[in-house]
Amino acid sequence: MLALLSGSVVLLIVWFLVAGALPALRDGYLPRLLFDEHWQPGSARDPQFALMPMLAASVLVTALAALLAAPLGIAGAVFHRFYLPKRLAVWNQRMLELLAGVPSIVFGFWGLTVLVPLINRLHPPGQSLLAAGIVLALMILPTIALTSQSALRSVPESQLLAAAGLGMGRFATVFHIALPSARSGIGSGVLLAIARAVGETMAVVMVCGNIAKFPGSVFDPVRPVTATIALEMGYASSSHKALLYLAGLILVLVTGALTGWLAFGKRNAGEVS
Amino acid sequence: MMKSAPLLIGLSVLSLFSGCSREKREIIILTGSSTVAPVVTDAAKRFEATHPGVRIEVQTGGSSRGIADALSGLATFGMISRDLKADESELTAHRFAIDGVGIILHQTNPVTDFSRQQLIDIYTGKVTNWKELGGPDAKITVASKAEGRATLEVFLGYTGLDSADIKAGVIVGENQQAIKTVVADPNAIAYVSIGAAASEAAGGTPIKLVRCDGIEPTNENVAAGKFPIMRPLQLVSHGEIPATARDFLDFLTAPENADLIESHLYVSLSK
After folding, report:
1. Is B139 on the interface with A (CB under 8 A)?
2. Quick check: ipTM above 0.90?
3. Confidence (pTM)
4. Of the candidates B62, B149, B180, which has its C-beta nearest A112's C-beta?
């Protein structure tokens, strides 16, 4: 019964988003989201509602974070499983769990006061795609590292022993036995992390610069969809509000598709093993 | 066990309701501007201490929510940090304090003064280098507020610009984020509540408030109406105000409670 309840909560949220977005859909704002040039909903003279730069920003920030965090997290997990002495490995695990528990606003605060000034010295203004990508990468790193660790742990001991029996070195064992065998587990960990990154808001708002334009480089400020909703929802009224609901709905659909892909991948992996 | 859970929840919710009705407390609800809310919350605590039968609830959500809730009757008062617009004339405004909006720069920036025209040029992207204003040869990082923020509306009102005219390098939400942006970037310019900026600067944060049209951004100048960029903090009501709510309004503007408003670094308008 409780499971049914939590399932219906999701439906309730989607229904709520659809209801909120309906005025915008009815008034034909959907093409404006696609084809407008700027995001200036509050302008009295020329209100415009371009969503595409924000969707692009959501995708770019998430992709950058995954690119930074995935190699680090997977390499970290390999190191943890095959190279680190047991006592240190326990501490490594604790640290990662601690990192996973840091509230996102703390990451944002750290990003704004430490990371942004550093990037600013390289290339102003500092609040940028790069800053958001790095902060997000740190936030999803524990997810990737911990899921990769457990995927590597579930590689059958017999396979590792067989590799040792064949005279394979540690490096060859990792690359030719352990990683291929744990691939699907690692893959779903990365997807899980990406799903979190797409929806992450508070930390990103503080470091991304919030300019709703297609970025020309990693040093340009960007504004993901979630940042817009966080910045403007409390202050928006009428059609502006409906548009934010619509943006939220689109984001939920994107994340839903991602989770669907995740579940699909899991099922396939289950059939293989 | 599972089956009895909804029953338990239902019973506890019921008991909550009965608890309320037995005590017969009067409730005043205020919603709106996050700039106004902290002051009103403090005033509410003091008011409740002297009026045992009254409970005051304060919720934030921006001036727009304050307007909407006052109109719909969800709130006794809406809290807004701007003037009423022409299409909001159904509401009555009760002004109790003023907040100046000041221009802040990094402490190391040698520029000390802006005219209205210079601010317009900077925020529309006509002037992009500090060199043109007597500063170092560096690109200006223009920080502006997100759509819907009362501070943005006050700034637009002063400069006569439309939000579409503003060419910002960075867009921020709250005052604190604007201040942190200027701290992080020595070439940034931002506009924030004078109260917030003054207390941060006094606490050692490397920012400075600069003169506008030659006027120092101090609370004295804001109170005297000399400083050009400012906003009123007010409560708005729709129709008849209940007696207790009227008492709270008088309480807020009473001279003996001016210290509450001043402790938040706003200018009191006590009668």
Report:
1. yes
2. no
3. 0.82
4. B180
